[in-house]
Amino acid sequence: MENFNCQYATLAKMNLLKEYCLAHGVCKEIKKRERFATQGSLVKQGAYVEDGLFKYTKTDTRGNEHIVGYVFSNEYLGGLASFIEPSEASPVSIEAVKDSKIYCISFQEIETFFSLTIETQQIRRILVDNSYLLMYNHLLDFYCKNTEELYIELLNRCPDLPQYIPLKEIASFLQVTPETISHIRRKLRQKRKS
């Protein structure tokens, strides 16, 4: 699958962070539905996803679960914010959508990496800058694009997504009802037939 969140992981300097995670991280196999983090629980590590798919969920004060993000192969798990400013309690739950292979690395070890050289300090800045751009562009998309455009964009970036993610969860991520997504899918199928 193509890089979902942003293009930060493809930047040449980011290879240093990837290589560091592979060399200093602990390789783990995470099974489908296994949690990497639970909302409100203590989290002391992030991870590089060598192969896999994870979803981020947030439970609101009424007990409703919302899909707030996805992480794919060759991306970093735990949220960019976790690599920048680790906190004790996870603001979200992170769950494997399929069997995945990750390299877990403590936030203390990541902090050591960021302090190695000027180049590794620049990587920290790249993470901060791209985290901001990701959130800003996501916000603009929700203001300026209709649901069909958002859904098509999501599929263009992640064509395999419907294979792993149920319609209800895609609807949650796009903040619409499952019926809206069904309607969009029907409309797109009809367009392809004509």
Largest sheet: 4 strands, antiparallel
In terms of DSSP E residues, the strand content is: 15-25%
Instruction: Please give the radius of gyration in angstroms.
Output: 17 Å
Low-confidence stretches: 1-10
Helicity, as a percent range: 40-55%
The chain-level mean pLDDT equals 84
**How many strands in all?**
8
Structural class: alpha+beta
Rounded to the nearest angstrom, the distance between the terminal CA atoms is: 28 Å
Secondary-structure element sequence? HEEEEEEHEEHHHHHH
**In what order do the strands lie side by side in the largest sheet?**
1-8-3-6
How many helix segments?
Answer: 8
* Cα shape: globular
Q: How would you concisely characterize the structure shown here?
A:
This protein is an alpha+beta fold. The protein has helices at residues 14-24, 80-84, 107-114, 118-144, 147-157, 161-164, 167-174, 178-193; strands spanning 26-30, 35-37, 45-51, 53-59, 65-72, 75-77, 93-96, 100-106.
Kindly describe this structure.
With 194 residues, the chain is α+β, with helices and mostly antiparallel strands. It contains eight helices and eight strands, in the order αββββββαββαααααα. It has helices at 14-24, 80-84, 107-114, 118-144, 147-157, 161-164, 167-174, 178-193; strands spanning 26-30, 35-37, 45-51, 53-59, 65-72, 75-77, 93-96, 100-106. The protein has a four-stranded antiparallel β-sheet. The protein has a four-stranded antiparallel β-sheet with strand order 2-7-4-5. Helix 7 crosses helix 8 (178-193). Mean pLDDT is 84; it is low at 1-10.
